[in-house]
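User: Before I run my own analysis I want an independent prediction to cross-check against. Here's the chain; please return only the structure tokens and, at the end, one sentence I can use as a sanity check.
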Amino acid sequence: MGGWKNTYAGLRRPVQCAIGLIMLAWVLMAAALAGTAMAATARPAPAPQDPAGTVLVMGDSLSAAYGMAADEGWVSLLGERLASRTPAWRVVNASISGETTAGGASRIVDALARHRPDVVVIALGANDGLRGLPTHDSAINLARMIGAAHGAGAEVLLVGMQMPPNLGAAYTRAFEQNYRNLADRFDVALLPFLLEPIALDRDAFQDDNLHPVAEVQPRLLDHVWPSLEPLLD
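Assistant: Structure tokens:
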């Protein structure tokens, strides 16, 4: 019996060793599979692509969505349109209600350094006109803004405005001509009159008869778009 016991014990040791090796292999394989699954789960999502470029809008209340939700204004709608392009563009709306050309000229250098735009839309002057400020001063301020944008390597779209005739024929002519002169002098794109599509429609304006309602903001964007789109290419 002792011989059979010794023989059985001798046989059992190799078998136990083989079973142990098989179990170890299964454990290692399971660990490897689990590690692969965890790695797949933990893999970070692809980083969002950088925008193709940035459009900076320097305007007043007409561009700052006065009297409506910010996302209803034409600049916000422009952002949505450019975000859908491939590759997408980013829009920064630096417009401030009540802004004059002097205010824009004082802010533009900081805005250019902060946002590094590829295109700058300058839509200022309405408040200068409503206050009867000298058109010569407005021209100097707009020229400074255009020069700063060009110095930063950005294209410029100059968006003009027109004044009502009660300010006098000479003033309204000089005011409108400012934008044309600047566009010619600095060779920049010009949209002569932001409100042209709606200017004669009283229902397109809020109770103050100065600021467009939310419903016409898409029309303003469609008016700006043909002048802006070439600068994006």
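Sanity check: The longest helix spans residues 2-42.
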